[in-house]
């Protein structure tokens, strides 16, 4: 797995969220972050989940040299993002493109 490519993508994620107007300056509560629902869908928007859950967790795994999550081809995060944002009328091309790249990095055959 190309760890350097994932590190680069994670470093670019804040800029993509900002470019698309999805960056949050206020962190969610600890209770919101403790959600047990996939993607914390009951307490966070998907863009908050990217910023406050995915980014720190993947960064921590990389820094500690721990195993990274893996997806089967077509089972990554970008499809869900696209669907949620379409339903909400959000256009976020920079973030969507970057998350699709992260999906490809984490894909397994």
From TrEMBL:
Domain of life: Bacteria
Pfam families assigned: DUF446
GO biological process: single-species biofilm formation
Residue ranges of every copy of the YqcC-like domain listed in the record: 6-104
Alphabetical list of InterPro entries matching this protein: UCP006257, YqcC-like_dom, YqcC-like_sf
Name used for this protein in its record: YqcC family protein
């Amino acid at each position: 797995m190309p760890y350097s490519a994932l590190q680069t993508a994670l470093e670019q994620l804040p800029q993509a969220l900002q470019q698309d107007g999805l960056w949050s300056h206020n962190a969610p509560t600890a209770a919101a972050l403790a959600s047990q629902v996939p993607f914390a869908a009951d307490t966070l928007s998907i863009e908050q989940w990217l910023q406050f859950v995915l980014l720190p967790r993947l960064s921590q795994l990389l820094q500690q040299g721990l195993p990274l999550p893996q997806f089967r081809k077509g089972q990554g995060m970008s499809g869900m993002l696209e669907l949620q944002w379409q339903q909400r009328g959000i256009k976020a091309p920079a973030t969507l493109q970057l998350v699709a790249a992260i999906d490809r990095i984490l894909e397994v055959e």
